[in-house]
Amino acid sequence: MDNPDITITENVLLAPLTAWRIGGPARYLAAVRSPRGLQAALEFADRHQLPVWVLGGGSNMLISDAGLPGVVIRMRDMHVDVTAHVDEAIVQIGAGAPMAGTVRQLVNAGWAGLAWAEGLPGTVGGAVYGNAGCYGSDMAQSVTQVDIWQAGAVVEYTAAQLGFGYRTSTLKQQNAAKMLQGMAVADIGPIVVGATVRLQRGDVAQLIAEMATTAALRRSKTPPGSSCGSVFKNPAGDSAGRLIDAAGLRGFASGGAVIADKHANYIVNRDHATSADVLRIIEHVRRGAIPRRNDMTGATMKRIRIGVIFGGQSGEHEVSLVSARAVLNGLDPARYDVVPIGIHKNGQWVAGGDVLATLESVADVALLPGGGDHVQPPQVPAQTTASPHLILRGDGSTVSQQIQGLDVVFPVLHGPMGEDGTIQGLLDLAGIPYVGCGVLASAVGMDKAMMKAAFAAAGLPVVPWQLVQAHTYKHHPDQVIDQLEAQLHYPMFVKPANMGSSVGISKVKSRAELHIGLQLACTYDRRIVVEQGVTAREIEVSVLGNEAPDASVPGEIIPANEWYDYEAKYLNDATQVVIPAVLTPAQSLTVRQLALRAFQAIDGAGLARVDFLYDAAADVFYLSEVNTMPGFTPMSMYAKMWQASGVNYPAVVDRLVELALARGVRGQES
After folding, report:
1. 266 is catalytic
2. Model's pTM, two decimal places?
3. Would you call 309 exposed, middle or buried from its count of C-beta atoms within 10 A (0-12, 13-18, 19+)?
């Protein structure tokens, strides 16, 4: 789309447009030159059901190396209209006008009031949005009116209505959380399209000298290169830079990013830094300096009381223990009050003490990484008719007493009786927010047959498949085999409808093997999915977010065995992982878009790993499954793909908790 009001370009690298010079491509970049252009950009995003970001919608924007999978709006209205009077001027400025160039233009015309701002990066719209300032001055001192796009119209706000504060405004406060994951068009907050400032007549030579003095002062404190300052908010009565210095972190580096020598509250891109490098520094500072003053984020932090549930009764019990160990290690004790809650294989709930070590001590070591020389496939979970015991080791109190007052729960449970909507329903009834998908998405994501039906309804590509009822197979085995051979050809994959981690799955190449595969699958489930085998590469994508999710760079699994079975996933070091997957930019974009569509097709929330089979000969990505609680260690594919996209493991854990709290109890507005 290209007209005088707007230009929309596909797959545009965002790094050159940011202060840090970091960031992957925008799926679409909309250069907007008028309110009509903004309306057209939003209509385009709504038509394609894409999230929206506003470039310059806040200072120090850090964009993932994976880019932004939606419409990024860049305000390009750069008009500067001066209405001069005897001693003052009223200046109307477009939101896209560059701050430094606009200031120089006004100073050279003899207008005083903004000379201090000559060194501010970015645009006038971004400066107004965040009340940018330096050396005791800020935009609030000169702005008299701001033109805001809101609910389909331009609305004039007075300075008093904008609630300007230190490096903030009501506009920024309304949009801050939405900007993290993109805004749905229906939920677009206010967007700055222009501003009016009142300036006084001044002496040009004096103004130029003032501007030069301010610029020299700024250069003396600002590190060279692509950088962002004021990364951390100054706590009351103190300086973030001083606290970072006190923690011995000046000069701390990660990859191509470093805390500046000149000023400790600057992070510099010194050598092709990635967003992951910057995030590692931010996390390191947050852990090293913020605990000294918890108000570096603007307010004293109350620790979040989080329950981490693990174990469970499924055949993936041991996988859950490995994931839980990583999650517990990844939760910052300065931010979280952690309550570990274990579920034994017999359904007994335990809490208190080192519950994870207790469950690990009775786990099947052959199913844990490095735990045995021979692989033992997970057994069918023991059935129990007894009610689960809610006990607490040590003082004898109950788990229900222990979990009182939880702010949020992280259910690190894989497979049935945990990942299938059961624990999610329990938490909904208890009114406790939780990480991950709700009841519907969890149930659909666990049941391969229902998931494929949801994919088909959404027009997503899947391989040919058939559903077999265990009861029918047990009573009419040859008839079932005949029907499968008539619909599909060998090789086939036989899968229990409700298991994960490749548990109970067989690749079969003959009628005899098909019988054996069906018999095995029937021990795990009463419904069996039989899929057509295809010659394909195993491609995976991680998804993170709620209503406007983001997709990671794709990864590829090259299994050590003939296919990606339990041993290849967890126990065989010869399995290879390639991140990012070797794909063309167009293929990478396609598979990421398909991952987001699959996530939304099941009404996903929080997280999921979406698995594909890529048929290179046909150039088709077939959806295999959406895993709503994938393996969750730093070495798992989910975390590795986000690491390669610029988000490290602790940051992913923190983000998931934020998403859970933002979504709240299912059924409520978020």
Report:
1. no
2. 0.57
3. buried
